[in-house]
Amino acid sequence: MQLVLFDLDGTLLDTAPDLGAALNTLRAGHSLPPLPAERIRPLVSHGSPALLKLGFGIEPQDSRYAGMRAQLLDVYRTRLSRETRFFPGVESLLDKLEQRALRWGIVTNKPAALTQPLVEAFHLYTRAACVVSGDSTPRRKPHPDQLLHACALSGVEPQAAAYVGDAARDVAAAHSAGMRAVVALYGYIGEDEQPQNWQADGLLVAPADLLGWLNAQALIPPVLNGVAS
Question: Are strands 223-224 and 85-86 parallel, antiparallel or unpaired?
Fold first, then answer.
């Protein structure tokens, strides 16, 4: 194992508070009451289509969709990192991967115009081996293009990489790319979803569980006296 790739929303960063606030701000502009956070949170990983369907009952084929999506993203852009935080344990996990000389990167369906400032706000650009956004390749997850692009940027073969995400499309994209797939159960997974049936290679209750998964499969070098061996 030479590279661990992470989804962004629902895996590295808890972005639900800011995305939820953006959706409710847009609803307020249409004289609609705010939606509770617990209704919004499970849909955050599914992006604008899921949020606009929840908030306004519209889907991508609707005539209002493009305009509403632009409005939602404009509002969200003003508060990208106001309430967003690392999931507990993520910072320590990244430190430990680096101590073991394992490179890591980010692959997200979020457009680059939002990904770049958000990643910069958390000082991750200088640490990540690669950052691939939703518009970095012609096709997004569940197609494997983004993950293959991330491997190419990092100079790593897909079979020497793993992808950690919180949606079924993340598992599908990873397997289509020829890499291992791991599910972040702590992410934005709805009650009606069954990640145990996604045929992932590993399930993480907490970020730190990734180290145990890698160790169990002898995919990660141990740290001896503070030095990766």
Answer: unpaired
Say which of 9, 18, 170, 209 is annotated catalytic: 9
Q: What is the pLDDT of residues 166-185, one digit of tens each?
A: 999 999 999 999 999 999 99
Q: What is the spatial distance between Cα 181 and Cα 7, in angstroms, rounded to a whole number?
A: 11
**Cβ–Cβ < 8 Å for 191, 42:** yes
Q: Alpha carbon of 14 to those of 25, 73, 80, 196: distances in Å?
A: 19, 17, 11, 22
Task: Indicate if 143 and 185 belong to the same structural domain.
Answer: yes
Q: Is 7 helix (H, G, I), strand (E, B) or coil?
A: coil
Task: For residue 192, indicate whether it is catalytic.
Answer: no
Same domain (yes/no): 149, 137 = yes
7 a catalytic residue: yes
Which of the following is catalytic: 7, 166, 170, 209?
Answer: 7
pLDDT confidence bin for 73, thresholds 50/70/90 = very high
Q: Which of 30, 48, 77 is the last residue of a domain?
A: 77
pTM: 0.92
* Domain assignment of residue 185, given as a range: 3-14+84-228
